[in-house]
Amino acid sequence: MINRHLPRIVIFGATGRIGSAIVRRLAQEGYDTLSVGSQVNVLDELPGDHAVLSLRRGDIDATLIKDGDVVINAAHAMATADIAKFCPQGISRLIVLGSARCLTRFPDKAAEHIRTAVSFLENSSLPWTVLHPTMVYGTEGENNVNRIARAIQQFHVIPLPNWGRSLIQPIHFSDVVECVVRSIDAPNLSGRSIFIGGPEPVSYAQFIRTIAATLQQRVFIVPVPNFVLWALVWLSPKIPFLPKIRMEEAQRLLEDKAVDTAEMRHELKVQPIPLDVGLAEALSPSQAKV
After folding, report:
1. Where does the pLDDT of residue 58 fall: very low under 50, low under 70, confident under 90, or very high at 90 and above?
2. Are 215 and 283 in contact (CB under 8 A)?
3. Where along the chain do its domains lie?
4. Which pLDDT does position 183 carry in this prediction?
5. Residues near 227 by beta carbon (within 8 Å), at least 6 away in sequence
6. Cα distance between residue 264 and residue 131, in whole Å
7. Which long-range contacts (CB under 8 A, 24 or more apart) does 101-108 make?
8. Exposed / middle / buried, residue 57 (Cβ in 10 Å: 0-12, 13-18, 19+)
9. Of 10, 85, 126, 259, which sees the most CB atoms within 10 A?
């Protein structure tokens, strides 16, 4: 049942994996929701009101967003400026899902889009909050964990540069959803970027061993020099049985991707799911398709 004392929530990207989970979670909390997306069949399965729009075509209805609304951009950070154009000054908050990828030291178009979006918001007069999740796992059909799981099951060998010592901090998708929901009415968040991640950083090697342990499979970490890694990037699209590796993915294997989650814990009041617990759920037969 809708609680009329709560603000209406307009969710862009509502047909995506994270966006649809946000809509369902908000409906459980009694929020009046307006889901915005381009996939009619997915919108029809979501609770609340729907609007069929394509951000890529720029066909946003100028009357869609009203004073008092909370607007969530779960589509892509690069759409932030287009969404903001149609936000009246009287909105309660604009919440944007960015990515900790913005911290990369390597050239990366996706990271640049996120930094551009944050810069745009910093120069706007809207009340905004950006949440930057680390690697997200656990949604149905996601490829971060499932691709590694398939490789472990097929080959039992994972090549990694630097013995897999680089750090990552994967976050379960349900924690991302919870952070978005908590951001709606959390105080003192306006004009801030907050990084959200798993409970603690782990090395790539530890991450892969935890996946293998969850699958009850053996795995061997094979250290590879950088030139071999670049060769795998070149070969992976050409050899059918090899997992596809993009250049930006390979580069990011060489850098730490750990974040400080103090604001997530203390201000959003979200305690992230432990990695082994999240992986057990993500790789369960009912969730994972590996």
Report:
1. low
2. yes
3. 9-133, 144-167+202-252
4. 98
5. none
6. 9
7. 101/252, 102/132, 103/257, 103/259, 104/251, 104/252, 104/255, 105/255, 106/248, 106/251, 106/252, 106/255, 108/248, 108/251
8. exposed
9. 10
Question: Tokens 């930057």 correspond to what residue?
Answer: 132
Q: What angle do CA 73, 77, 79 make, to 5 degrees?
A: 75
Contact 268/194 with Cβ under 8 angstroms?
yes
User: What is the token pair recorded at 4?
Assistant: 């009329």
Q: What is the pLDDT of residues 210-266, one digit of tens each?
A: 999 999 999 999 999 988 888 888 888 887 776 677 888 888 899 999 999 999 999
CA–CA separation, 272 and 171 (whole Å): 7
**Residue 242: how many CB atoms within 10 A of its CB?**
14
Residue range 78-114, pLDDT digits in tens: 999 999 999 999 999 999 999 999 999 999 999 999 9
CB 254 within 8 A of CB 162: yes
Token representation of residue 53: 């729009």
CA distances from 28 to 64, 193, 240 (A): 23, 26, 43
Q: 9-133: which CATH topology?
A: Rossmann fold (3.40.50)
Residues 6+ apart with CB under 8 A from 171: 133, 134, 135, 136, 137, 196, 197, 198, 272
Helix (H) or strand (E) holding 96: strand 93-97
As a whole number of angstroms, the distance between CA 179 and CA 131 comes to 8
Contact indicator for 150, 290 with CB cutoff of 8 Å? yes
For 109, other C-beta atoms within 10 Å of its C-beta total: 9
